[in-house]
TrEMBL record:
GO terms for biological process: amino acid biosynthetic process; aromatic amino acid family biosynthetic process; chorismate biosynthetic process. Monomer. The keyword Transferase applies. It catalyses: 3-phosphoshikimate + phosphoenolpyruvate = 5-O-(1-carboxyvinyl)-3-phosphoshikimate + phosphate. 3-phosphoshikimate binds at residues 20-21, 25, 165, 167, 312, 339. The active site is at 312 (proton acceptor). The lineage of its organism: Bacteria, Pseudomonadati, Deferribacterota, Deferribacteres, Deferribacterales. This is 3-phosphoshikimate 1-carboxyvinyltransferase.
Amino acid sequence: MITFGKIKSVKGEITVPADKSITHRSFMLGAMAEGSTRVTNPLMSRDTIATMNAMKALGAEFIPAENGFVVVSKGYRFFQEPSDVINCDNSGTTARLITGLIAPAGVYAVLTGDDSLRKRPMKRVIKPLSLMGARMEAASNGTLLPLSILPAHMHPADIKGETKSAQVKSSVLLAAAQIEGRTSYTEPALTRNHSEIMLKSFGADISAEGNTVIINGGRPLTGTDAAVPGDFSSAAFFIGAALMFEGSDITIRNVGLNSSRTGLLTALASFGVKFELNYYENTVEPMGDIHIKHQTFSGGRIDGDLIANLIDELPLLAFLGMFADSPVEIRDAHELRVKESDRIASTLYNLSQLGAETEEFEDGMKIYPLKKEPAQARLRSFFDHRIAMLSILMCKRFGEKVSVDEIQSVDVSFPNFADILEQTEIK
Ligand code: S3P
């Protein structure tokens, strides 16, 4: 078991690693586009390296350049057949998005992943892509990785999304961009729109109206510049830390502030939390600085369409329930059951280890304020990067009586989490 010394506060100015979602997409679009794409400040983590390797397998070149890469490619019309199985490692985004990216390319490819990813649902992308003529076979009666993609002649379609998932939407859009004709995708709730923003900047004919995205596909995409902002989902751990550690005062610079990602700020504002945002001018993706100080706050109920805009921050919000003045309740969040771990189960396991009173629902959880400091707690990461980072925060909050079984999994999204946290620590 791993322990850490107790810290009092987190203070200072930090930058967090680059956005994982935007890095995946810049590597994928760099490979789909003709010519050179300059990717500045990409996240180099286990997840995004899986995407880079997949794009190399299709024939794209990644030439190291200052603070990033130049991706050189002949474009999607010239994708080569991968000579081996593509391993998506722990990355759901890689697996779901490249299923759509490869399906119309006329090549045979097989995708697999690690123990966690091979348990996560793939039917959600297989179904809409099949409606567009894709041919694929997958394990466990067509639901799980490994998944084979067979050459197919795909056609445009009007797709009604059944899952509130940016991965599913993006998978359809990456296929549709390559298929001659008009495809529309209507999502059940607005999810992150990085794919739409980026497809446009690579020259796709794409527009959005309400919850429907329309793309006129089949035109070549052109290489461009892609600068990756800091990851709001990584910044969120420091927003949370400021609220957990008394006396904290944190400024996080260069953070992506796309409103389809910042649902945590909406939720916290509804809990009475005060913070300052300073938006930069003229950026492709909204970005800026976040300033937050320690303060007391109430709880509340978070549900409905907002859930899609803070999906990766829900475990953090649940942990914050221990430090609020009243319970935090999260509902309509079934999707948490199929993330890197079952995040309702893994969050509640750790919260009850810490002595918090909790309730479990099929679609969420309710957490009551912590009545006394935990006596002893043995936390588990469930090999889930976000649960591992929350466990590290708890170890530092309560000192050596709290331990965690494993923290290597932070490499998936935030390899230098412990270093950045250390920069801010006041003992
Ligand atoms: C992601 C979308 C989300 C999120 C994941 C990254 C993306 O998944 O949980 O970490 O980059 O599109 P879903 O869209 O399936 O909820």
